[in-house]
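Question: Now follow the chain.
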Amino acid sequence: MFKKILLPTDGSALSDKATATAIQFAQLNGAQLVAISVIHPFPFSPMADGGAVLDAKTFEKEMEQEARRSIAKVAAAAAAAGIAFEGVVTLSFSPYEEIVETAKQHGCDIIMMASHGRKGLNRLFLGSETQKVLAHTTLPVMVLR
């Protein structure tokens, strides 16, 4: 039924657990796995007195390297399981939009993603990329906790 799975990853332990579940799901369905890692651009803030200024290019380069490491972990797990794999690294202030758009571009038929399970005010103030993906896609979304 599901032939192409989109798996957002950030390299965290929670993402690693989601990767293991997505690999098993892909094996059961004979599906391909597409992993995405979204890099947040350098957060510009006006200089304040005594503030340290980070170099935007250095920041984004380091974030890209971390995103590529996250994708490489998923690629290794997919290869070990004999699952067809494709990795995507993008740069965006809006990860949920990149996730939804990547699912469309790659013809995915399900999105599997981890959720931190925040509740109450934390969820309200911090937002939830998972909630945003659920609200902006017509694809099935499997939320892994």
Q: What stands out?
A: The radius of gyration is 16 Å. The chain has a mean pLDDT of 89. Strands lie at 4-8, 32-39, 85-91, 110-114, 141-144.
